[in-house]
Fold this sequence. Notes:
Elements: E1 13-16, E2 18-23, H1 33-38, H2 41-57, E3 60-65, H3 70-78, E4 86-89, E5 93-95, H4 108-114, E6 118-120, H5 123-136, E7 142-145, H6 164-175, E8 181-185, H7 188-197, E9 201-204, H8 210-219, E10 222-224, H9 227-235, H10 259-279, H11 300-311, H12 316-330, E11 348-351, E12 367-372, E13 375-379
Parallel strand pairs: 2-3, 3-4, 5-6, 7-8, 8-9, 9-10
Antiparallel strand pairs: 1-11, 11-12, 12-13
Helix pairs in contact: 5-6, 6-7, 7-8, 9-10, 11-12
Bound molecules: zinc ion.
Amino acid sequence: MPDVRVVDATGATVMPGIVDAHCHLGGNSYPEETNWVLEPDRFQAIASAAQAAASVGHGVTSVRDISVNGPHLRRAIGEGLIEGPRIVPCWRGLSRTGGHGDAPGLPREMVRTSHPWGIIADGPDEVRWAVREVVKNGARCVKVWASGGGLHENEPEDLQHYSLEELRVIVEEASYVRVPVAAHCESAETARAAVEAGVWSIEHGEDLDEETIVRMAARGISLVPTLTLLVQWASWSKEFGGYYARPYVPGAEQIPGDRDAAVSLLRARLAENLMRAKEAGIRIGVGSDAYCTGLTPYGEQTLREVRALVAAGLTEMEAIVAATRSGAEILRIEGETGTLETGKSADLIVLRRNPLEDIGSLDGTEMLLVLRQGCVVKDVLTGAG
Ligand SMILES: [Zn+2]
């Protein structure tokens, strides 16, 4: 076969490309919800192409994206116009009025046309319509903010945002087009309701009670813990000189006023919650929740999350499986990618060192080669590509 290139990767490690099960290729540059709506849509569309390229340049060969750009990026990448990962688009996620996908300082109409990743829907009829709308726009998964997310003080993380009835309608409507539902759940009550409604994955899920964990394991509901983002989010609260409402540590009687102390308390809580989920056999995925070019560097944030899973207690192999095979299953693309097997796409990365010996080798500077669907995205091994 004369057109086959042979690459000598002696001493290096080959592994499947990384799957990021939760990111926002919204092209957004700002930390606050008002600015991410006001920023020109066309600028965001262009910037999202750079976010997609940065992702795949770090070995992230597949993503589940929650943003208005996802279906268009998917097409442009598919047509070879730009570099980027394989995209499973959610298009916009459902938020109630004043919820995590709204911008309360701005008129509803402006949010409707220009929010990079939120669509507002209240009540069973509107959420049914909104699911149809996101599916019409190319969604292959429906995202819902079932709880608050702590952008501002009127949407704290520990409160449920959609009723069980609304969540059931969302899942039912999505089932009519065989599309799964991913639910942002930061409180125990919310996760319990989302599981009861029959969602496919719990996003964040840092406050899972025992009953919910047992039911998730029994029903095959996945967890995308986004540890890196949750720690960043707490450290970016207004109390510590940042942008967001207040640091959130589920189960904490009192949150320390010192940033480092608050962050270490949160890390311990996140690790404990994650390990209970893992011990129960829940499928765990890697989600960067990258949403802003400057704050959460695309691709790099995903690799940080894999390392964070190890820091929280997973073995190196468990974290790599979360980042590859399990991620592909969560995105429902395991027939195409997620493992290195005959018949699947050549989505792979070559690392200078073995990540099973040191997960720190899962870093952009250690990545010698990235292939997405057989195409060379990055090649410092041979200098070609
Ligand atoms: Zn997110």
